[in-house]
Amino acid sequence: MKAPRVSLEQWRTLQAVVDNGGFAQAAEVLHRSQSSISYTVARMQEQLGVPLLRIDGRKAVLTDAGDVLLRRSRQLVLQASQLEDLAYNLDQGWEAEVRLVVDAAYPTERLLRALAAFMPQSRGCRVRLREEVLSGVEEVLLEGNADLAISSLDIVGYLGHELCEVEFIAVAHPDHALHQLQRDLTFADLQNQLQVVIRDSGRSRPRDVGWLGAEQRWTVSSLSTAAHFVSSGLGFAWLPRHLIQRELDAQQLKALPLESGMSNHPRFTLYSHKDKALGPASRILVELIKTYDSCNLDDQP
């Protein structure tokens, strides 16, 4: 890669000349001599082979080429400043990245609001968000590949902070055969129908959660795919209410009138890496997740 001929300090000098209206004013702001400022700009023009400024009366004015280059240079100088800030923050123990793994059934709206609030406080810390299903979350945490985890499972050996409950309901398309019975349904009624289930993304110890008494089951990899299948008239499924509220309102899905167990309410928990102390960015994100989880939010997608 070709080394740049113009330094960041030279670009800063040009910016000072333009922003402050001239060489003398820039010299005062930068605590340098006017001759030093003039030499720096002249040297830049020589190195670039492009005129950057022209004198209009007693004022330095950008040329067309200078205007384009100055605008690009502002981004360059800003990024360099942000890079230096990031280096300082890392030296102070601030993480470069927070790895967060979340069960796909956790309300996305709550997580989105927490992450949006985290952004202006992040100091350049990146968030690597990973979605898993059931034991997939536990597996990622146990393997040491996550700093924070949100799961509906009790993860042995970890203390966590309790979050919200998520309501799962049994649903099918309004025209499904189960709704045509027009009575409360027993589990025997469900046994003869196709159930759409979501695959546990864990590899070592996958779990079956929810009623799985149907003789015929189709397994899909995501909640959204299951919702699409069922709202198209294919089978029934247990799905989070917040994920399918629009389909319920649009009468594309309808809750099954079960005699008992019409819904279940798993509670989610926020866990952290037990063998690694949380850094300042992770601690801020934890507090924001807890705050926005406990708020009275509209969780409709």
What does this structure look like?
The longest helix is centred in the N-terminal third of the chain and has 28 residues, at 64-91. Helix content is 42%, strand content 20%. The chain has helices spanning 8-20, 23-30, 34-48, 64-91, 108-118, 135-142, 177-180, 187-191, 223-231, 241-249, 280-294, and strands at 53-56, 59-62, 97-103, 126-132, 148-151, 161-165, 168-172, 194-198, 216-220, 236-240, 254-255, 263-264, 267-272. Helix 5 links the parallel strand 3 and strand 4 (126-132). The protein folds into three domains: 8-91, Arc Repressor Mutant, subunit A (Orthogonal Bundle); 97-164 and 267-294, D-Maltodextrin-Binding Protein, domain 2 (3-Layer(aba) Sandwich), CATH 3.40.190.10; 168-264, D-Maltodextrin-Binding Protein, domain 2, CATH 3.40.190.290. The chain is built from eleven helices and 13 strands.
Q: Can you tell me the residue ranges where pLDDT is under 50 for at least 5 consecutive residues?
A: none
From the 3D coordinates, which CATH architecture of the largest domain would you assign?
3-Layer(aba) Sandwich
**Which CATH top level class of the largest domain fits?**
Alpha Beta
Distance between the termini: 46 Å
- Globally, the shape reads elongated
How does the major sheet shape up? Answer: 5 strands, mixed
DSSP helix fraction: 40-55%
